[in-house]
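Practice problem: predict the structure.
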Amino acid sequence: MRLVRWIFAVTAVVLVCGGYAWWRHSTDFIRDAVSAEGTVIDLVRSSSRSSERGTYRPVVRFRTQAGEEVEFVSNWSSYPPPYRRGDAVEVLYSPSDARQARTKRFFALWGGPMITGLLGLAFTIVAVALFFIPTGRATENGRDLGGASPPSSL
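Answer:
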């Protein structure tokens, strides 16, 4: 039981820190990003072992402020597809590297940090509960009695 507690605690810390780092990365990206109008030119099917239908990632083309045409595949996928070919989408891209682009949708920007943070919160709750749940082993004056009951006083 002691090992399980620590596994949950370490996993919670890793997930919370990872979610925070991902959130910071997203906020920094949004702060520095430039907005452009893009067009969905294709939908790439991502196969899934658990489902025959899979999910779809939009392929988006947009033009930077400098006039460079850029294509990128979205970093998220869904079923059913959120777009159809020819749909207009708002794009955020890094001015230093236009290939670092994302569609301006909530889940594309915040999905990863949100899921990671919520998993971290769940592991934190379980870890805290495990540290406060009695193990069922008796102790007397801080000494483990190895599962035996403490002596009763008559």
